[in-house]
Every structure is written in C-alpha cells, then in structure tokens.
Amino acid sequence: MTQRRKALLAFLLGPGAGWLLLFFLLPGALVIVYSILTRKDGGGVEWIVDFSSYVKLFSPTDGAVINDFMVIFARSLWWAALTSFVCLLIGYPLAYFIALQPAHVRSTYLFLVLIPFWTNFLVRTYAWKFILNNNGLLNTLLQDWGFERIAIINTPTAVLIGLVYGSLPFMVLPLYASIEKLDFDLVEAAQDLGANYLSVFRRIILPLTAPGIGAGIVLVFIPVTGQYIVPTILGGGKVAMLGNLLAQQFGPALNWPFGSAISVIFMVLLMAAVVFYLRSENRDGEAGL
Amino acid sequence: MAATFDVELRTVTKHFGSFTAVKDVSLGIRQGEFFSLLGPSGCGKTTNLRMIAGFELPTSGSILLGGKDVSQLPPFKRNVNTVFQNYALFPHLSVSDNVAFGLEMKGIDKAEIAKRVKETLEMVRLPDSGKKKPNQLSGGQRQRIALARAIVNRPQVLLLDEPLGALDLKLRKAMQLELKELQRQLAITFVFVTHDQEEALVMSDRIGVMDHGVLRQVGTPAAIYDRPADRFVADFIGDTNFLPCRVVDHRNGTAHVQVAGLTMSASSDQTLTDNSSAYLAIRPEKVQLYGPDTPHNPNEERFAGVIVETVFMGTDTRYVVELAEDIQIVVRQQNRNIASTRFALGQTVDVGWETVFARVLVS
Ligand SMILES: Nc1ncnc2c1ncn2[C@@H]1O[C@H](COP(=O)(O)OP(=O)(O)OP(=O)(O)O)[C@@H](O)[C@H]1O
Ligand SMILES: [Mg+2]
C-alpha cells in the first residue's frame, strides 16, 4: 500500500474507529479494570488489584449473594426474552403492514413509529405510570365503562407493558427493512406451486426475513436486560432486574468493583450470544441469500 | 359439457382503477397446444397470463380450465404453473429444493419427490446442479431450473411469461428449440407470452395478437403472417407496404382498389364500402421484380416503376420502387444468383405479385 492510500484509509476509518474507541472500547475496558480493583468507602475504587468481587460472585460460601445475583440474572434474561417475543408478535404484522403500503405512505408510518424518540424515555415511562396508576387513565376509563378497576401498576404486567412499549421501534425497524427487501414475486411463485397462505409464510417469508427477526431480537433483548427505568417506575422496585442490581451497587451499596464484576460477567455472556448469532447468520449468508 | 378447451377466456375484461388493461377477450386454447400471446409492451399479455394463473381476478368475464370455471379460485388451487420472467427462484433453497417445492406442497412422499426431481433435472440437462443455490447458476441455467420447477408438477397448463427475454440471442435461439421439443414430449398446453414476433412465429401452433388490451387476431403463424386481420397485425408482424387506396368494388372477399390511378386486385376479410379509402398491404418479399420483356404469370398483376433505392443485405437485396408520384413500394429479392443483382438504381422495372397476397385493410 502506498503512503497516500494509507493516509486516505486512516482519514476514512479514523472517525468511526475513534467513536468506537471513545464510547465503546474505553468504557468497556474501564469496567473490566474496575472489576479487579478494591472497593473504596464512599464510592470509587482504590487502585489495588483485588479479585474478591469475582470470588464473592461465585463463592459457594457467600450463598446469599450468588443466589440473589442468579435470580436477578435469570429474571433479566426471562424478561428480555419475553419482551422480545411480545415485540416480535406485535412488530412483525406491523412491519409487514407498513412494507405493503405504497412507497409514499410508508415513510409516514415509519415516522409515526419513530415519533416517541422525540421525547425522553424517562418522561414517557412516567406517562405510562399515569395511565396505569390505580387512579390513572386506564382505571378511570374502565370505571366509566362499568368495569372493575384493576391493580396493574407495580406488577410484572406493568413492567412488561413498559418494556414492550420502549423496545417496539427497535423490533419494527429491522423487521421492516428485511420485509421491504422481500421479493414478492417469490410469494406468487410459491402460491403458483400450490402453497397456501400458511405454507408461503412458513417456507418463504419467514426464512427470508429471518435476518430482520434476528437483528430485532438482538436490538430488543440486549438493552432490556440492562433496563433500569421501567422496573423502577412501573414495577415499583418490586421487580428488580440487572439494571437495578447495578444501580444499587454503584449507588447505595457504594461497591463499584462488585457492580463492575456483575457487568463484566453479563457482558461476556451477551457477547457470546451475539457472536453465536452472527456466526449462524454468516453460515446462512455464505450458502445463499 | 365436454371440455373442448384446456384454457378458455370468456369476454374477460380487467380494469386497474380507471385503466382498462384487458378488454373483452374471448379465447380458447386446445389441449397440448403451444399458444403464444404476442403484442407490444403494455398491451396486456402479462395481465392475461396472471388472470389465468389466478394472481389477478378478472373485472368481468370468466376463465375456465379444462371446462371448469376457476375465475374466483386462488392460484394455489389451480392446476397451472408459471415460469416467471425473472424466474423467481427461491434464493434460500437449493436447486433440488426449488424443484421439489411444488411436489412437497402436494404432499407427495419423499422418495417419489427425489426421483421426479432427478428426472426433471436431467430433462432440462442440469443433472448435477441439485445442491447449488440459485445465485450460483448462470442466467441460462436459472431459466432451466425455473422451467424444471414448473414442469415437475405436470400441470394441466404451463404459463410462460417471456421466459427467454433475459437470455442472449444465441442462447435464446437454442432454448426456443429446446422448449418446443420439451413441449412436444410432455404434451402439456403451453401459453407463452412474448413481444418478439419472430419467436412467436417459430415456436407456436397458434398465436393471439394483442394491442391495447384487445385481442386482434388468433391464428396459425402462417395465417397471421399471410392474412393479417387488420392494419395493426400487418404492421406488427413482419414488414408490410401500405399503399393508400380507394375501394372501387368488392365481392366475396376480393376487391378492386385504385392506387394513384393504378387499379389493383386484392383480398380482404374486412367489411368494405365502395369508394371508401383504405390501404393495400403487401409484404416486400411477395413482390417480384422483372426486367422488361419477361413473360407474364396469369396469377399476377404487374405495374411499371423506377428503382429509386437499393440496399444490399447479404441474403437479399432491398429495393424501393416508385410506381407513381409519392407511391413507393419496398421489394426484397433473394440474392440467388448473379442475375438477381442485375437491377440497378434508376432502372425501369416491372413489379408483380400474386393477388392473394395483396390485402385491403380499412383499419
Ligand atoms: N397492478 C397494476 N396496476 C395498475 N396498472 C397495471 C397493473 N398491472 C398492469 N398494469 C397496466 O396494464 C397494462 C398492461 O400491462 P401488462 O403487464 O399486462 O403488459 P404486457 O403486455 O405484459 O407488457 P410487457 O411486454 O411490457 O411485459 C400496462 O399499461 C400496465 O401499466
Ligand atoms: Mg409483461
């Protein structure tokens, strides 16, 4: 490579690489470093290497901590899975519907999907609290229509509603992108060969939009595991998730190394999952698509 | 009622909004026939085919397959298969799985499917391509797989929408013959859409010529070429001289017309009115050039003219002969021997043709 081409490459790749370094690798490295340092009273870390956080996490003698951690960990994964599933169930038909609209209408629908991003997530979650409260909009309406009031706030249902609400656009957008790319001649070809609507969906549409489904699930699943706002506001702190555990360690418990250690474990597991997903994607990609 | 036709369209009309894509088309296609729908781009050929396949429902009229009205049936309930213009092969399935798709949908057992897929791949002469993905095939190979995917089902009717359109000329010619041979072997009714008149003439048992959604003429290639029903058909298929004329008299399908003072005889299937204006249509290769003093053929009419243009074209030579002021006629003569090229620019010659080949067309 000539000197000039090297310079050009650096110029082109520089900003992106810098961005990744500053906002992704550096914080990640910081968390890893913190996780092997010593706790400092009143927050922060002492720069003395100490693996006690990991020992604490996995030591069988410290049963209470690991149990707590495992329960919250499992719950986070479960909530993330459930949220992804519900988002997929709602998001797929929605994305399909948008993709079938004439081109000029599509952008309007996509715009509507994106509108919530214009408001702070915290504010929107509080809005849900007002809707779901015992004296909130939902219960007022139910009462007006002659139904029983329901206690929904501070329940897992309220958390799920909040999580699904917040994640839906992240499911709809990649799904839309892959459905919009779908060649509808293939649908006709399948019908022509005797496939009814269900078979067309199962054998043609679903496999061809699988990349969108995968991307949507990754984009919903990972942020939800770290959710902190929704469980706090709509779950009343009763349904603690990983985010809450971390907040507790970095906040009231003032144990930064332990909080960092939890993050690291979780980061490793999620990364393994994503790598696994990308691998399987690539294998499909090589063979066709 | 016995099914006289494999495919029948009865007064079929299709509107898209206020636009009429197919207008009052009635047509019967016989079992085992190679039938082509021919017409310029946008004339409604694909729409017709899509209505037979079930992708579009006719606005009015009905469609029958094997004598049964299928107008309202969805595509997967019709015993027809389509070879799409862009092939529409499933990109995520291997070639074998593509070909097996229709049989799987019918619930045929695995061993039988494997056997028939193998047979069919051999039939389209790609026996070793089963494991490949469609994007690993060339255009011509994809075309064969699209064909295999359709014929493996042994449909009652095979619909082909410009299946050779994307191939280069040489491959196209080879595939024309192959396709024709395949159709003969399988004895399946083919409905073949093309805008290439030569392709239609070469391959078809019968041709339906369409224009602006209207079916203008149905007939064998020879009938359509030699006896075009109207001006559009005469113009669209092959080259034709149109000489403006006035009808002098007509009787039993023969007429006398006046072309710039010359009286000519011609045949016609159209309703003529004496003294109305019309066109006398005659194809360039039906016209014969004569030097002075050649003996006269009794079936022929002859007129004197002057050669105003000659173009040597290899197998033949194209002459333009002026018969009268503003009346020119294009003549093609085969270059069969040295004598064929004896006509020169500015020479006075006789042009003659058998009167059966001259047609009077009002519209
Ligand atoms: N879904 C549709 N909506 C509106 N108009 C349509 C639709 N499908 C076809 N048309 C119109 O109907 C007319 C006939 O279309 P069709 O596709 O049948 O033509 P074609 O003869 O197959 O032409 P080509 O040789 O270019 O394929 C065209 O003018 C086209 O614009
Ligand atoms: Mg077409």
Please, could you describe this protein's structure?
The complex is a heterodimer of chains A (289) and B (363). With 289 residues, chain A is mostly helical. Chain A has one domain: MetI-like fold (Orthogonal Bundle), CATH 1.10.3720. Chain A is 76% helix and 1% strand. Chain A has helices spanning 3-35, 52-58, 63-100, 103-114, 121-132, 137-144, 156-181, 184-192, 197-225, 229-233, 242-250, 256-287; strands at residues 38-39, 45-46. Chain A has a two-stranded antiparallel sheet with strand order 1-2. In chain A, strand 1 and strand 2 form a beta hairpin. The radius of gyration of chain A is 23 Å and the shape is globular. Residues 285-289 of chain A have low confidence and may be disordered. Chain B is of the alpha+beta class and 363 residues long. Chain B folds into two domains: 5-232, Rossmann fold; 239-361, RNA polymerase II/Efflux pump adaptor protein, barrel-sandwich hybrid domain (OB fold (Dihydrolipoamide Acetyltransferase, E2P)). Chain B has eight helices and 20 strands. Chain B has helices at residues 45-53, 95-105, 110-123, 139-151, 169-186, 197-203, 221-226, 231-236, and strands at residues 7-16, 19-29, 34-38, 60-65, 68-69, 80-83, 157-161, 189-194, 206-211, 214-219, 241-251, 254-259, 262-267, 277-282, 288-290, 300-312, 316-324, 327-334, 348-354, 359-361. In chain B, strands 6-7-8-3-9-10 form a six-stranded mixed β-sheet, sandwiched between helices. A five-stranded antiparallel β-sheet of chain B has the order 13-12-11-14-20, with no helix packed on it. In chain B, helix 3 (110-123) packs across helix 4. Chains A and B meet through helix 8 and helix 9 of A and strand 6 and helix 2 of B. Bound molecules: adenosine-5'-triphosphate and magnesium ion (MG).
